[in-house]
Design goal:
11 strands; 9 helices; two-stranded parallel sheet
Length: 258
């Protein structure tokens, strides 16, 4: 893509989204940064700062209209929780799907008609290694990312005919603060607490939001980007292990004593 590409980023107020906005602006792209609270974007050196709540159709429609022509959508908005599936509040699972999965599709639907008519465009979805494997106690997040990757791959098939390229970026653990902000749903004396306490060791080596941002920006600028883009050696290793593991039993990442 040229240095004048117009890029709309969801969830740009903090963490990975903020780092992506800074990286793309530094590389000379026209960046439209969006967040539910646009005042959190005030210090970003970008072309536009817009309110966009991916779970609100009216908000999406208004932001897409105000952004003008968009060459690249970077769908980054998302959250996670920590809970066993036996007792996780179903309202929390629904909330994650509304934000991580349907929210991403809602914004894609907003930008796709113009991209299709122009015969060019990029959709980049920030997923996770958990779009291809699961971690215990993080099942709702993993399920939302598996669903996101199914949507992204379907879009790659359906829209490729119209010159639209789709990529899914898959970091492992990121030092963005997202895990620390996650809601934890454990009862007093919860039988799953010992498993929850193993999560920090399971998450492995961290990559920085800046490393993820560089991978996203490189993907945007590649003439023929791959469908899936693992970020960092740890992500590549665990995704390779998952691919090589037998399919007739659950894949349990190394480090679980349960």
């Amino acid at each position: 893509m040229s240095s004048t590409s117009s890029v709309l980023i969801t969830g740009a107020s903090k963490g990975i989204g903020r780092a992506i906005a800074l990286e793309l602006a530094h590389r000379g792209h026209r960046v439209v940064a969006t967040a539910r609270r646009p005042e959190t974007l005030a210090d970003l050196p970008v072309d536009q700062r817009l309110r966009l709540d991916v779970t609100d159709q009216e908000s999406v429609d208004r932001a897409v209209k105000d952004a003008g022509d968009i060459d690249v959508l970077i769908s980054n908005a998302g959250e996670t929780v920590r809970a066993p599936l036996e007792s996780v509040p179903l309202a929390e699972v629904d909330r994650l799907f509304q934000l991580n999965t349907l929210g991403a599709l809602r914004v894609a639907q907003g930008v796709l008609p113009a991209m299709r008519e122009r015969g060019a465009g990029r959709l980049v979805f920030v997923s996770s290694i958990q779009g291809r494997l699961v971690l215990p106690m993080v099942g709702p997040y993993g399920a939302s990312k598996w669903a996101l990757e199914a949507l992204a791959e379907t879009l790659a098939i359906e829209t490729g005919h119209f010159g639209i390229k789709v990529s899914v970026v898959q970091p492992g653990a990121v030092s963005s603060g997202g895990a620390e902000r996650a809601g934890v749903f454990l009862r007093e004396d919860d039988p799953y607490t010992p498993l929850y306490e193993q999560l920090p060791a399971l998450r492995g080596e961290f990559v920085t939001p800046q490393e993820v941002a560089a991978a996203v920006a490189d993907t945007v600028e590649q003439p023929e980007p791959p469908l899936r883009v693992p970020v960092g050696a740890p992500a590549e290793r665990i995704l390779r292990a998952r691919k090589e593991a037998p399919e007739n039993e659950p894949f349990v990442p190394a480090g679980i004593d349960w």
